[in-house]
Amino acid sequence: MAETPTMLKLPGVSPDQAVQAAREALEQGKLIVAPTDTVYGIAGRADDPDAVAALRQLAGSASGHLTWHAPSRQQALEGLTLKGPAHQRLLNRFLPGPVRFVIEQSEDTLAALCSRLGVRRSVIDDGAALRLRVPADPIITAILKRTAHPVVMIRASAAGFGAGPGGRDDQRVGDVTDPRVGCVIDTGPTTLGKPASTVRLKRDGGFELVDQGAVSSEEIMAAVERVILFVCTGNTCRSPMAEGIAKSMLGPEDLTTVISAGVASVDGMPISQEAIDALKPDGIDISSCRTRQLTPSLIKRAAAIYVMTDSHLQRVLELEPSARDRVHKLDPAGDIPDPVGMPLEAYRQTASKMRELIAQRLKELKE
Q: CA–CA separation, 264 vs 137, rounded Å?
């Protein structure tokens, strides 16, 4: 008589007990059903041809490519060649996270990776790209870290293992009786309840959102675009000059938007003529800049925020406390005084000082 899967429902059993049972099942060549941050999945060893065949059969594809679920970002990216800031930013943001990456690599790189993992070719690659994900759910992460084998997963609903009619609701797990499954871990509804989005990283440094799931196209673009925000008092002198200087140091390949704002500003007013004139000798034209009031939404949008004084830093944190790790004084050694009301030479000296500081800050962001 065929064995039925062991059902482990939390909190009835401890997380450690559930993880240990899953590890033992995988070691024995069994499949497991477990939660991820997106949906419930069916997992098996990528280095076990029988497990791979079982997953493909359950997914309805005899030779379909599966997704390697790596235990950590470091292990997932070991030995891979990545190009351009878009790749780095997407991987930094969504590994771990609810995105499946299809990463184009050379034949030699794919062959070396599969050899290192002990996985046959065409299981986690299609000859041109690797399919991988690092889930954020603590249970599946612990399982992946404890097993000595690479693991691939498919959606539970693909085999009708989800809840509801036809087992298609894979935010929850349903009744699983397939004897190829060693254990089922039930932690209740998954966090996101939607499948992972799929993003293809191209060898030329570009990317493509192939399938939108838990992460929207807007969220993908927001992760790729880096916003730098400069803040001063009125957004008429220091911060618009900093904005212009930073823009002159960046190119389209940097995928960076630079903006400025003031803690005591209003929207839409012209900036100081002296600030405009101070940058003209360097070929930087900021005459079209208009003042902008600092808001929580601007702060949330920025990946890096540089302020001129301690009082500016305090105001940023008053508006958005979550910015603590992203806001810094442009000059770590002290305040940058406001040149307002002073001769043009004071503006030029301020611009010269900020140019050196901004170059250093941009270098830090690229490292």
A: 43
Asked if the model's pLDDT at residue 36 lies above 90, the reply is yes
Closest CA to 229 of 304, 330, 294: 304
User: Residue 90: CA atoms inside 13 Å, Cβ hemisphere, count?
Assistant: 34
Q: Of these residues, 232, 289, 315, 331, which one is catalytic?
A: 232
Residue 286 located in a structural domain: yes
Q: Is residue 96 part of a domain?
A: yes
Q: How many domains does the chain have?
A: 2
| Within a domain: 1 | no
Among 238, 315, 348, 355, the active-site one is 238
Q: Are 35 and 141 in contact (CB under 8 A)?
A: no
Question: Does 338 participate in catalysis according to the annotation?
Answer: yes
pLDDT of residue 2: 58
* pLDDT of the residue at 1: 47
Cβ(316)–Cβ(295) below 8 Å: no
Q: What is the pTM of this model?
A: 0.77
Q: What are phi and psi of 208, to 5 degrees?
A: -145, 130
Domain CATH code at residue 350: 3.40.50.2300
Query: What residues contact residue 203 under an 8 Å CB cut-off, 6+ apart?
Result: 83, 104, 105, 106
Same domain, 104 and 59: yes
Boundary of a domain, candidates 198, 216, 234: 216
Predicted confidence at residue 199, as pLDDT, reads 97
* 212, 244: one domain: no
Domain span at 249? 225-366
Question: Domain holding 70: CATH number?
Answer: 3.90.870.10
Overall residue count recorded for the chain in this entry: 367
Q: Is the dihedral of CA 184, 185, 187, 189 positive or negative?
A: negative
* Residue 276 located in a structural domain: yes
Model confidence pLDDT, tens digit, residues 122-145? 999 999 999 999 999 999 999 999
Is 23 among the catalytic positions?
A: no
Among 186, 216, 246, the domain-final residue is: 216
Strand positions, DSSP E, 233-291 = 256-262
183 is annotated as an active-site residue = no
Residue 41, beta-bridge partner list? 34, 155
pLDDT in tens, 303-356: 899 999 999 999 999 999 999 999 999 999 999 999 999 999 999 999 999 999
